Amino acid sequence: MHAPNLEPDPAAGPVSTAVGVTIVAAEGTTAPESLVAALRREVVDGHLEVLDVLLAQPEASTAVVLLWIPVAAAAAASPLARIIRWADHKQPRPGLIGWSVNGATADAESALAAGFDDFVAGACSTREMAARIRAVHRRVHWNGQRRTGVIRRGAMTLDTDDHELRIDGQTFALTTTELRLVLALVRARGRTLTRAELLDHAWGSSNFDIGERAVDNVVLRLRRKLGKADLIQTVRGVGFRIDA
């Protein structure tokens, strides 16, 4: 098992505002207390919670959840699915980050496709993890100016405050990443956006090693969720556009 790099980076600049994260571990494992202490040195207020206790909470009491998986993520498919189902029923939906210290790229791709906002496979410094937590926290709270309320385009109504997309009388709950991707396509007004552009919109400038394939995974998930395969159209060799 690889030990995570929990040493603070002395070159890291100060961060003025602390953000909170709830750290839970996959069943049968325990998240390290040293992770909480290291994150606090990076001005991230982390606290440990038992997975079953978190999932039993009727209301989301945290903006970001970090799932600690000290094994390959494929061995922890159950907690991933349980946390996604729990988060999808909360308003606002908490941001989800996974960390599989012995995982591989395929684990990250599967978790992102399933509904996680971010996922790390392998070693990760405390500074990088803190930056990822802050990035997901920003996406959950939309930085104020990004909370644009209700946007209508054709038969679609996108509610950015409630993370909902309504089409022909049906309402679909969206993850933060799905919402940001749909919002970018709606604002493009039929213009095709490249995968690189959508990557920036959906994951922000702190996307680190998230590849453009993650965009395809989110588009595929949206098509399945909405039951409208032709809503988000693929422009071969370019990217994606949304049908008005």
Description:
The radius of gyration is 18 Å and the shape is globular. The longest helix is centred in the middle third of the chain and has 16 residues, at 126-141. It has helices spanning 33-41, 51-55, 77-88, 105-114, 126-141, 176-187, 195-203, 213-226, and strands at 19-25, 44-48, 64-69, 95-100, 118-121, 150-153, 156-159, 164-167, 170-173, 193-194, 232-235, 239-242. The protein is built from 8 helices and 12 strands. Mean pLDDT is 79; it is low at 5-16 and 143-147. The strands form 3 sheets. The protein has a 5-stranded parallel β-sheet with strand order 2-1-3-4-5, sandwiched between helices. Strands 6-7-8-9 form a 4-stranded antiparallel β-sheet, with helices on one face. A hairpin with a 4-residue loop joins strand 7 (156-159) and strand 8. It has 244 residues and is an alpha/beta fold.
Keywords:
globular; Arc Repressor Mutant, subunit A; 2 domains; 8 helices; 5-stranded parallel β-sheet; alpha/beta; 244 residues; Rossmann fold
Instruction: Please compute the radius of gyration using only Cα atoms.
Output: 18 Å
**Count of discrete alpha- or pi-helical segments spanning 4 or more residues:** 8
Q: How much β-strand is present in the residues?
A: 15-25%
Broad structural category: alpha/beta
Sequence stretches where pLDDT stays below 50 over 5 or more residues: 5-16, 143-147
CATH architecture of the largest domain: 3-Layer(aba) Sandwich
Number of self-contained structural domains = 2
Provide the CATH superfamily of the largest domain.
Answer: Response regulator
DSSP strand count: 12
The side-by-side strand order for the widest beta sheet comes to 2-1-3-4-5
